[in-house]
């Protein structure tokens, strides 16, 4: 597999883990917090990059930090903007990511990074105040290999707000703590992640064959090697959902497509939550196919004995009625314009995720 981390210690002879002398620390914090390398894969992020970088640079973190932007081929001015930001602040570095893949961006950035704590941030994520301080303190207190929190989806338009509601509701994503919140504790994976560098290197780095779910796959290998992944609700990062039905559908199809790769590679990880959307997609498709067949036979004056196939339409009708009822009950606090979009958003997320899972080809599976 590609993407094995460079273990050459000479490359990182300047790594620093201690805070600068004379820093002031809050009561209860370690006297010295380790320096942090914040790593941000970016591609086509001109619209959000400056705000994301500003939130990182504004962190009040006594241990010191750097920001490594791994820039992929973009159709907008992302690369130019990244270099302008780096020229304006010595804490920022830019590295090339020719493939544009997140996993290869992470590996390239980590090789360049100087410090022993690696924090992944997306180019459209907005760090809250105190994020690095809270994350690193939790990393030290728990002894975890990776610490993370909640993808706090927040929309601007009515459609985005509907997507945000679905992404933070069990009706949309099941009982996933990194989406819906929950109590602090061990987890399979977390949103973004603040890692001990040695844990990433020991696991062999990011798998560059994974186009989606690369964090989940890495965290699985870390856990398999005895590392602890720790979820804490104290870490909440604002996430901007997709802005159109088309992009939402494409996103969730890819999620399902690559989740099937993970399921085939590590079948022991499969559970009912991951099978719910594929099962719903399969049953709805089968019901619609039977209904269409019955409609054709009815139009062709086939014997009445075959007209029962029309009952297949009951399956998608019941499903749509169900998610509409769920929306009416659980999303009643939302504005009417947002609430009206929730059933369509839920159906798109469920069906596209499920279809991607069902269509994912076996040839994609390559295990280390």
Short description:
This protein has helices spanning 49-57, 78-88, 102-112, 131-142, 158-167, 170-173, 177-180, 197-203, 214-224, 245-265, 272-299, 314-330, 336-339, 342-359; strands at 36-42, 65-71, 92-96, 117-120, 125-126, 146-153, 185-186, 191-196, 229-239.
- Give me the strand/helix succession: EHEHEHEEHEHHHEEHHEHHHHH
Q: Low-confidence parts, pLDDT < 50 over ≥5 residues?
A: 1-31
The DSSP helix count reads 14
Question: Oligomer, anyone?
Answer: single chain
- Could you say which structural class the secondary elements and strand pairing correspond to? alpha/beta
What is the percent of helical residues? 40-55%
Q: Main beta sheet: strand number and arrangement?
A: 9 strands, mixed
Share in β-strands: 5-15%
């Amino acid at each position: 597999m590609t993407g094995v981390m460079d273990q050459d210690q000479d490359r990182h002879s300047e790594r620093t883990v201690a805070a600068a002398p004379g820093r002031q620390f809050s009561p209860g914090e370690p006297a010295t917090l380790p320096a942090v390398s914040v790593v941000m894969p970016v591609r086509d992020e001109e619209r959000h990059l400056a705000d994301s970088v500003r939130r990182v640079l504004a962190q009040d973190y006594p241990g010191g930090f750097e920001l490594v932007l791994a820039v992929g081929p973009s159709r907008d001015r992302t690369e130019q903007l990244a270099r302008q930001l780096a020229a304006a602040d010595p804490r920022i570095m830019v590295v090339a990511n020719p493939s544009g893949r997140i996993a290869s961006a992470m590996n390239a950035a980590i090789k360049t990074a100087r410090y022993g704590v690696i924090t992944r941030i997306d180019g459209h994520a907005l760090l809250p105040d105190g994020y690095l301080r809270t994350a690193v303190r939790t990393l030290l207190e728990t002894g975890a290999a990776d610490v993370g929190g909640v993808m706090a989806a927040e929309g601007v338009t009515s459609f985005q707000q509907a997507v945000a509601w679905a992404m933070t509701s069990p009706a949309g994503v099941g009982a996933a703590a990194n989406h819906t919140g929950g109590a602090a504790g061990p987890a399979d994976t977390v949103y973004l992640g603040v890692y001990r560098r040695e844990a990433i290197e020991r696991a062999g780095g990011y798998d560059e064959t994974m186009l989606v779910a690369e964090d989940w796959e890495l965290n699985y290998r870390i856990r398999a090697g005895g590392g602890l992944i720790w979820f804490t609700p104290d870490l909440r990062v604002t996430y901007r959902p997709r802005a159109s039905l088309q992009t939402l559908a494409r996103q969730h199809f890819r999620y399902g497509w690559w989740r099937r790769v993970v399921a085939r590679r590590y079948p022991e990880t499969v559970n009912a939550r991951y099978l719910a959307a594929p099962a719903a997609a399969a049953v709805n498709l089968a019901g619609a196919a039977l209904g269409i067949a019955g409609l054709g036979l009815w139009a062709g004056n086939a014997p009445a004995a075959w007209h029962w196939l029309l009952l297949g339409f009951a399956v998608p009708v019941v499903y749509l009625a169900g998610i509409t009822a769920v929306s009416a009950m659980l999303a009643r606090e939302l504005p009417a314009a947002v609430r009206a979009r929730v059933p369509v958003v839920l159906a798109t997320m469920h069906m596209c995720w499920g279809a991607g899972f069902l269509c994912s080809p076996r040839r994609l599976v390559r295990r280390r």
